[in-house]
Every structure is written in structure tokens, then in C-alpha cells.
Amino acid sequence: MESNIAVTNEKKPTWGGGGVKPFGASYGKMMMWFFIVSDALTFSAFLAAYGLTRFKFINSWPIADEVFTHVPFVHGEFPMIYVAFMTFVLIASSVTMVLAVDAGHQMNKNKVTVYMLLTIIGGIIFVGSQAWEWNTFINGSYGAVKTTDGKILQFTKQSGVDKDGNAIFKQIALADFVVGDRGNARVQHTKGNGLWFEDEGTISQYSIAQIISSYEGNPDIQIRTELIDLDKKQKKILSREKGAEELAKTRLIVEGANLEVNEYGNTIFADFFFFITGFHGFHVFSGIIFNIIVFFNVIVGTYEKRGHYEMVEKVGLYWHFVDLVWVFVFTFFYLV
Amino acid sequence: MAHAQSHTKRIWNVFWILSAITIVEVILGIYKPDVLHLTSFLGTSPLNWLFIILTLAKAYGITWSFMHMEGEKTWFRRAVVWTAVFLIIYLVTLLLIEGDYLYSTLAPLVRW
Hints:
heterodimer, A: alpha+beta, Four Helix Bundle (Hemerythrin (Met), subunit A), 53% helix, B: mainly alpha, 4 helices, 73% helix, flat
């Protein structure tokens, strides 16, 4: 019976004061673990919802290799490389965090300070990379058109043949083949040239008619649909005639991605990308803030006076959890 | 506790293992060997299964070593891990089955 009573009126209360510690864990550490469980369930719910949606559109989901291909300061297509770098940075900052905790156990203030600083720097590099990734995704790289029935059509050009003699197609940007004048003299409406109380979303520099006539005038261009050839795991390419038929239904020119349109394919893919990586990025950001607070506490000697560095351990748990989530986001967004 | 043993060497070992797994994943992700990528095993390609297994291995490394789960009391560890793992498997299974159902109902309506 006595073991079930949490609050005692003796001088040794449960938790704090050197009394009983349930599960041998301190209050703060246990609650951090339970918070992590609930947060893990939140993230799993997002990823599971992503899975549901992907299964729902299994034959038209964007192929990650064709979406995330860019590396800062370098031209060309290098799928996976940059996101692998980001993963590596986060794992490395996890290591410096463990090393800080380890140094804390030995009451080595200088080492804790250095390792906390390195962890913070790693976190900042990661968040910066994610911002760059978002920027690239939002701006888009090729441009596409959306038809009246909501399909995204991309433009490709044959770039060679594979070993079986099948043509290999490479996506090209609107700027690479659209020629001539837009034809309708349409200009972007601004407050300066129109009504000062009206706004207009950015319009493309190309017109729909211009894209269609450029397609017709250039026999090398073929249209890539969202539909996946499940045998080859590649997007299906339409013949010239079929392509012209689909292109005639164009409703909108899409350059880049936001919550409403997405040049890479299904809009909901972009929605999930913003939502999941955004929520994770927000966790990293708050982790950096916690780390900075603890870092200054280490410097002013708060934990030295307290006699233990358990606070470093607790923010460490949170920081590793952020890394743990990224491992899953990396797999389900970029690899699988 | 003041002069606990340092585990630096072990920490670096785990780091190298996690990095190696990531590198293997990236190489497979870039080259996507046809044997693994275009074949099917238990509902998806063997490559995807490989990615999932490697991810779980990484998650284990992070939780057990970095988050020091191995040092916690047995039932505390189970309270955290079993709860999370059970609920996640449950949720993921239901939602993926539902997604598959939605596809089979919806796909005939989308003409390409």
C-alpha cells in the first residue's frame, strides 16, 4: 500500500530531495521521455497520413529523385546528395550533443561548452539548408502546365537511348523551348499600372497559346504525364499527337510549388512537404533555442553550482529525438 | 556520478555506423539497382524494404545509444518503446490499408 502513495509528508518527498525515484529516473527526464512519446505519435500521424495519400495516388505520385535534385552553388542534377548532407549534419550534431552529455557526467565545464556550441552550429546549418531546400522547391526548376482536369503536364526531350534501345527522356524547362511572342500583350497588373486597390498573383512570362504553338513547332518536345509506368517505375511519356491533345486542355501555367499548385505533380505532395518538413524544421528551431539557453547556463556555471549537468541530458534527449524524426522523414520523403 | 566513466569511444563507433548506413542508403537511392528496384516483395520493392530496415537500424542506434535508453530501467524503457511502437504500427497499418482502398475505388475514375 505504501508504495502506491506518491506524496509523503515526511521529509523525503518522491522526486527531489533525494527520496524515491520512480523507475530510477528523475522527474524532468521522465517527463521529457513521455513528451517525446507523444511528439513521436504526432509525427507518425503525419507520416502515416502521407502514406495514406501516397497509396491513394500510387500511380501518379511524384518521384522524389526528379523533384529534389539541386545542390547549392552547383549546376546540374544531383538527386539525394544535398539531403544526404543534411542528414549527415544532423547526425554529427547529435554526436556532439552526446559528447556534451558525456563531458557533463565528468563535470568538465569547458568540454561541455565546446560541444554545446558545436551542436548549435550543426543545428543552424541544418535549418539553413532546409530554408534553401524550401526556396528551391517553391521557385521550381522547370515549369509545367495544368489542364482543365487537374493533371500536370511536363515537357521532355529525348536525351539518348538505354541499353535496350528505349529512348531516355530528360525534362526541360519552359524557357528551353518556348519561343516567340506571348501574343496577347498581357502584362502583370501592379498598383502602378492599374487599380491601386487590386492585387494580381504573379502571371507567367509565357502565355498558354505561346506554349502550345512552341510545342507544335518543335518536334523534339514530348509531354510527360504524372502517370507512372509501374513496370519501369518511370513517368509515362506521351506521343506527339496524344501530347498535343492533352496540351489543348491547358488551363494554367505552373512555375514552382505552393499550397495550391505544384509543378512536380500532385498538389498534396507539396502540401505534405511543407507541412512535415516545416513541422520538423520548427522542432529543430526550438531545439536550437533550448540549446542556446543551456549553453549560456553552462558558461555562467549554473550546472557547476547545481552539482550536475542533467539539464544538458534533457535537452540532449529532445535534440536526439529531432534527429530520430529526420531519419524517418528522410526515408519516407526522399528514398522510398 | 561526478567522475563517471567516459563513453567517448563507443559514441564515435555508433556515429560511424550511423554514417555508414546513411551512405549505403544514399548510394542505393542514387543507383537503384533494377534487381532490387523493379521487383516486388511483400507488396513493395525489396529496395524499399531495405530502406525501411536500415532506417529502423538507425533509429535503434539513436535511441539506444545516443538517448541512452539502454541504461534506463527495463520497465521504463518498455513504457516508452512498447507504447510508441504499438500505436505507430497500429496507425500505419490502418491508414495504409485505407489508402490502398481509396486507390482501388478512385483509380478507375481518373482517365489518363
